[in-house]
TrEMBL record, chains A, B:
Family membership noted in the UniProt record: Belongs to the class-II aminoacyl-tRNA synthetase family. Type 1 subfamily.
Catalytic activity: tRNA(Asx) + L-aspartate + ATP = L-aspartyl-tRNA(Asx) + AMP + diphosphate
Name this polypeptide is given: Aspartate--tRNA(Asp/Asn) ligase
Positions annotated to bind ATP: 219-221, 228, 485, 537-540
Amino acid sequence: MRSHYCGEVNETLEGQSVSIVGWMHRRRDHGGVIFIDLRDREGLVQVVCNPEDAECFAVAERVRSEYVLKIEGLVQLRPAGSDNADLRSGKIEIIAKKLEILNASETPPFPLNELLDVNEDIRLRYRYIDLRRPEMQQRLRFRSQITRQLRHFLDSNGFLDIETPILTKATPEGARDYLVPSRTHQGEFFALPQSPQLFKQLLMMSGMDRYYQVVRCFRDEDLRADRQPEFTQIDIETSFVEEEDFMNMMEEMIRGLFANVLEEALPNPFPRMTYAEAMDRFGSDKPDLRISLELVDVSDLMGEVDFKVFSSPANDPRGRVAALKVPGGNNLSRKEIDDYTKYVGIYGAKGLAYIKVNDIDAGREGLQSPILKFLPDEVISAIMQRVEAKTGDLVFFGADKATIVNESLGALRVKLGHDLDMVERGWKPLWVVAFPMFEWDEKSARWHALHHPFTAPRESDLALLDSDPEKCLSRAYDMVLNGTELGGGSMRIHKTDIQQKVFELLGINEEEAQDKFGFLLNALKYGCPPHGGLAFGLDRLVMLMTGAASIRDVMAFPKTQSASCLLTDAPSPIDDALLKELNIRLRKNPQAE
Amino acid sequence: MRSHYCGEVNETLEGQSVSIVGWMHRRRDHGGVIFIDLRDREGLVQVVCNPEDAECFAVAERVRSEYVLKIEGLVQLRPAGSDNADLRSGKIEIIAKKLEILNASETPPFPLNELLDVNEDIRLRYRYIDLRRPEMQQRLRFRSQITRQLRHFLDSNGFLDIETPILTKATPEGARDYLVPSRTHQGEFFALPQSPQLFKQLLMMSGMDRYYQVVRCFRDEDLRADRQPEFTQIDIETSFVEEEDFMNMMEEMIRGLFANVLEEALPNPFPRMTYAEAMDRFGSDKPDLRISLELVDVSDLMGEVDFKVFSSPANDPRGRVAALKVPGGNNLSRKEIDDYTKYVGIYGAKGLAYIKVNDIDAGREGLQSPILKFLPDEVISAIMQRVEAKTGDLVFFGADKATIVNESLGALRVKLGHDLDMVERGWKPLWVVAFPMFEWDEKSARWHALHHPFTAPRESDLALLDSDPEKCLSRAYDMVLNGTELGGGSMRIHKTDIQQKVFELLGINEEEAQDKFGFLLNALKYGCPPHGGLAFGLDRLVMLMTGAASIRDVMAFPKTQSASCLLTDAPSPIDDALLKELNIRLRKNPQAE
């Protein structure tokens, strides 16, 4: 129907006839002439309807916002001085010779030709209008381009795109599974996969050697701002490879992606940091390295002080006391410090001690803090020395269980970075490595897998599985970019005895292991190759690369935070007759049963 | 870990050291030497372990089938006369210098080094072993290659890969939806999509212009041999295009696929056939043109005969009498004809009349049939003339409602083609076009949509929607290859009034339409562009192109015909506590409620 996209008509076509289709974006009547901006995927072009062309003009008079038009006309340069530098087509206009209304439109619920802050619920309800906005179009195009690039890299490197089932078996963390009642096997359920983890491992056992899939995953949980019930992974697995080679390949892929799609250079190689160092310096296993603020451990200085808040965690093997110096921070107001104290409270911190450095050379007199009185001179000066405090700085302190100190000061560090405009521009990727295999869960008094139960321990740490599980490091690795985990993975366990030992440590008894993972344990017996892999979160990656504020802005049809679709009104009630066929029914009074 | 894949080691590497990894496929002890065939994704290579190399030899002695090995060795040409022409590596062997067992294997449940007919249930239960077989590896690689090719074509033509939701709204044909209870909205359900039909139309309304997706779809129905509860579509939609241009583009894509992947040339252009002609000549809207047998209508000859079985359908406007000539078929035995009679019975035919042509020049005397006595001479000779019968032929007859005649003789035609070895080699694609919008359903006494309710009627047939719906043709098209429907699609309705009229005709009242499709009807109001598209069945396409006998052979982890996964044992029972969280429970006695 068209000879050109609207956005592609430019001065090289001067004097030629073109035919374009699109949406009526804006209309101006000026000096008896009607100007129409016609919009399609590629952009806008200005169409001129002159009253001399009566037929065309009459149609133009009827045209309203978002009408779908077909226009034939002649390309001519705009009159001198009326170029629009913001448009690719800004040097030309099209003199309409024929104008046809392909479809009318009611007045849209929000205008597309003005920059307006539209309520997100309205945007989601009328998603088909929201998606016409150029920035939304750009994001989805960009997403398409990103997966194409990643696929191209993986295809070129011998990875096979293999599909794994969506209707699959419930996992032990079944609480987060979406369930699907089976009609054929009444009383039984499929689960939607939280990831194709076991299937990709089975594909390695199947000798596929290199696998990838751009695959939908599902998690039925309370939705934080940044989560969706369904999300997309770039899922990758490979056999007969060591983590070093594999990580190099993966960072090459991401470097290539940024170079090709954004024309941005990422470092080569990505820096690597152990989990221990990341927690120590940044209180996080996904540190945002654009922010130079760092946690400094001062536990060793606090063991003897006459202040329980500091001395007690300093003497607790699972405790920590850490300082966070804010250069130039001593002009923070009382109110600001109170707000930060509330902020760390979210992460369980019971307070937020601080010292303001008014004059570093004046000793105790040059400092200002409610806690000064608890600290002897030599401790104060040791702290100031260790954090390299200067006049005008402020030093925050966290003292609690290490997990709480790390989480709260780690979050505070990032918040301060943004609040005080201390975030460097650009991209700061890194690998975090040498994760512990297990972490101790206080509540359940059990070991939990820091990654998942199929993650291999380091060969050199195998003996620690028996003697000191907490010290046993895994062969896991996370790729982190600007404080976001882009992807994570590991070398997997490929031997039955180690898998069984890990299940035992995690408190999964033999019967449960057989019931849940029997097929994996079986498969390990029949010649499982050494293998490992990684999964990238595509939505998160696209969000970072496009600078979108919400994950919902990089998906065509996202769900709300209460996991519903405002456009189609899903989920929705179902006829009892249909439920009957599935042999299920609703509980009338869930509390009573 | 490897320097080369096993299958890639060849005579160009003579004299070089290589390092390979893979599975122990076969072991032979011969003249004191151990020969190991090592297997990986790329093929087999022969490894020689000499007793002189004691360390290596000792390991080789322990090696059993499907052990995972790492071998370093020297490539040398095989001794004269011992080349294996079946292997890419057949001119060389590797003299092992180092042999390491990376993992052991129990004896596999079926051998991989012998061609055996293994029970499919065992293959599915041990899929990770089954998939190691070269033909299964080939099929999945091929599938990966096919999607890559199709993606490449679509990317190059400006189609954007956009993901649509899997957790979506139940459709009116809800009986076939898989349902997913919502935790957040208790008592409500998502449905898994039977296709992303409405979402892709909404993407066109969103101005995306060209969309595609390789997408999982779901259908909860009794599984015929060739169906799976989840299957994959190449889903395509485009705006501002006429069907001719779009069909040309789609066949160019498929021609390119066959040329690139199979090096086979498909005709250019594909022949086109109306639905009416396809039913008339082949009794099917997906005719296998490799079989030259055709149905010939003889209704007009039968109106007056004194044989109700023929005259009554001949006089019924929805009836049909048709002949199917089988060249050389008069040597079919009584038993064979009985079997064919039973066969057409599956399709509802109440019998299968026939005439054997012993001597075409001898008139009635040269023919042999139980029905001859009912037919006057002039009718007999008119039939013989019309089907161009020759001595030695046999003519079958179908007489019933047209739907039954078409289905039964259409199926018989294909069966005869295969039984009598009348299937031409090669590829016979075609487009079937000019489908009716509606077909009358006798049971429900209602019009049904032949495609789906969003299919556009031909512009020229719009008036028929009111006057004679049965005659109204649609803008639908199906691509058929060798008797299989590869894909189907249509131009869609893009105007509210026509969509409403079609809903009315289908007996969907306004309330129901609003409830089920309100969002689509709404979207039509706000500037919907003319659009249309198509969806290809990927599994079917791969099956055809690989010559696989079952759809399960082109999927990594298929379900059985009772929709269960023998590998993971899904679906499975779920703890009542989990069901409680979803506010559902099992009916104890479904019959009683």
